[in-house]
Every structure is written in structure tokens, then in C-alpha cells.
């Protein structure tokens, strides 16, 4: 069976939901022929009376199954229908609840108000199969029953890199990854808790943001500005650097529909690299069961503070969490789930074509 995976521009999503699944599934199942492309090759034309062009042909490149990542345009919906008309099965891959992007997020206008989230739901409704990263996303995109959760995982080569807890730096780094301007509500759930932990260990600790700090110092009431570490676009390079730069990783999330649907990836990454993790009690972080739960500012102060002050505790917990990742959260553990989803899509398309014949 040949599978063609079409990915978006977002490197993180491409890596975790397309490129690495393709590699792992291909290694696990030699009956699969897998290709990965950015987008699909199409032919478009302007039909009489139309103001915009319409997709009139899609090249499936001989694939039995085409995977479309985060389709959210009218053109992608047209592609889906044309592929199915050719007898090609279509899998829609979704790893965000687009309809719940919060107001104030820079993607809200494009995804919610423009109607892109509605088109994504329509693509999922018409797909032969849908893959998602969390049970909450299954409720949004897989109510028809042709869907499955394939959780995020990491390749063994990343988890087996030298872990953070083997280092013994003079100054410990508490870190967070991302752009503060797009996650202000998340960072602020810690309120003054992080500053309290840093104040107790002044001179022996620092806070760093692997990405863009923006107004983080003001939002977190920090005495000292965070160290800003430029983001690394190469995902393998980013994951390697995570364990080289952080000793304690924080994963605060405001509990809302968008965040409740998000994957456990940030805490998984911290734990895989031997970084002690403190995180919010979101549904997925709870399901993962890794990292220290912080519900209130005083929890952040206590748990981050203890990790900074008690080296044995920090190393013991970080090592245990890394072992849990090795035991159950590698891409080799999810490879068969991906392959099974693609096969179910092909079977569903064959059945639909027989009924329609």
C-alpha cells in the first residue's frame, strides 16, 4: 500500500505528526511505501462566473491513501473530494482544536472569524478516516466513528541523548519554550509563583525562555528579565538543546477548550530530555501522568523551588519520568497505530466505492 502524506508549513506539527510517523511506520511495516510532500500537486482553473479559482485535478502520485494535515481551506476540501472520486482514500490529520483558538491569539481572526475552522470540520466529516492527537479532538473531528487517537511520541534517538539530570551546573536554569506573545494567558497562571522560587535561590538559578520573551517579565512579576534563547527551527536540534539548556521545565496552561484539547507534547519533551517538569493540571498532562502538578501560584513556588534546592529530588524524578517515556512513549510504540489508521481509510474508501457503484 502506498501512502502519500501532505504536510503544512509548521515544522513542529510536520515533525511529530507527519515526518516521524512516516519514518517509524515505514520501518515497522515493510508492506508500506510512504512518501512525504509539502502540499499536493494540483491543477486549478477559474470557472465561468467564479471570482476565485477552483481545483479541478489533484495528483495522488499513485497513492492508495493521501494524508492531509490540517486542511482548512476551500481548495483543500475540493482536493479531498477529487481524490475520493479517483478512488483514493483520504485521511485528515488534526492536532489542534481550531474552533477554540482564544480571542487575542494571533491566529483567532484567520482560523475562527474567517471560517477556516468550519472548513476543517467539514474536511474531517467527509474524510475516509481522521487521526487526532487527543481524545478531546476526537470529539470535535471524529464523531462519525471513522477516527482514532494516535498520541504524540518521540523517536528513541532523542530520548537516548545524554539527559539534563547528568549535568551539575553552578546556576540552574528554569525554562519555558515558546513565544510569550502568543501564550500570555498560559504564562500568567503561575502569577508570582515562579518569582518566589527564583527569589529563594537567587544567584543559584535563572529563568530562560527558549523562544521569544516579549512581556514575560511584566506578566510574571520577575525581578530579573528572563534570558532569551533564540529558537532552533530544526526539531532534532531544538530537542537536543532542550536537555543541554534546561534543568527544570515549566508547562503552565490556562484551562480552556483550546488548551484542554492540546497534546501532552511539552511535558513529554522535557521528560524525554531528563528535565524536571512542573505543569498545569490539563486533561492531557494528567493523562500522561508525568511531571509535578501545579494548580495554584503557591504550587509553582513550592515545586519549582524544591527542584532547585534539592538536587537528589530533581534528579530522581527527572530520571523516573525519562524511563516512563522510554517505556511507552516512543514513535516505535505508535507506528502500528498510524499504519492501522491508513489501512482503515483504504478499507472505508473501498467500501464506499462499492456501495456507490
Radius of gyration: 22 Å
Structural class: alpha/beta
Can you say what the CATH homologous superfamily of the largest domain is?
A: Glycogen Phosphorylase B
CATH fold category name of the largest domain: Rossmann fold
Overall spatial form: elongated
Number of strands: 14
Organism: Geodermatophilus nigrescens
Pfam families: Glyco_trans_1_2 (PF13524)
Domain Spore protein YkvP/CgeB glycosyl transferase-like: 197-338
Keywords: Transferase
Set down the secondary structure blueprint.
Elements: E1 2-7, H1 11-28, E2 33-38, E3 41-45, E4 54-59, E5 65-69, H2 74-85, E6 89-94, H3 108-113, H4 116-126, E7 129-132, H5 135-141, E8 147-149, H6 156-159, E9 172-179, H7 184-187, H8 193-200, E10 205-212, H9 216-219, E11 227-229, H10 235-245, E12 248-251, H11 257-260, H12 265-272, E13 276-279, H13 283-288, E14 292-293, H14 297-309, H15 311-328, H16 331-356
Parallel strand pairs: 1-2, 1-5, 5-6, 6-7, 7-8, 9-10, 9-12, 10-11, 12-13, 13-14
Antiparallel strand pairs: 3-4
Write a structural description.
There is one protein chain. The chain folds into 2 domains: about 1-155 and about 330-355, Glycogen Phosphorylase B (Rossmann fold); about 155-330, Rossmann fold (3-Layer(aba) Sandwich). Helix 1 packs across helix 16 and helix 8 (about 195-200) packs parallel to helix 14 (about 295-310). It has about 350 residues and is an alpha/beta fold. The chain is built from 16 helices and 14 strands. A 6-stranded parallel sheet has the order 2-1-5-6-7-8, with helices on both faces. A 6-stranded parallel sheet has the order 11-10-9-12-13-14, sandwiched between helices. The chain has helices at about 10-30, 75-85, 110-115, 115-125, 135-140, 155-160, 185, 195-200, 215-220, 235-245, 255-260, 265-270, 285-290, 295-310, 310-330, 330-355; strands at about 1-5, 35-40, 40-45, 55-60, 65-70, 90-95, 130, 145-150, 170-180, 205-210, 225-230, 250, 275-280, 290-295. Strand 5, helix 2 and strand 6 form a beta-alpha-beta unit.
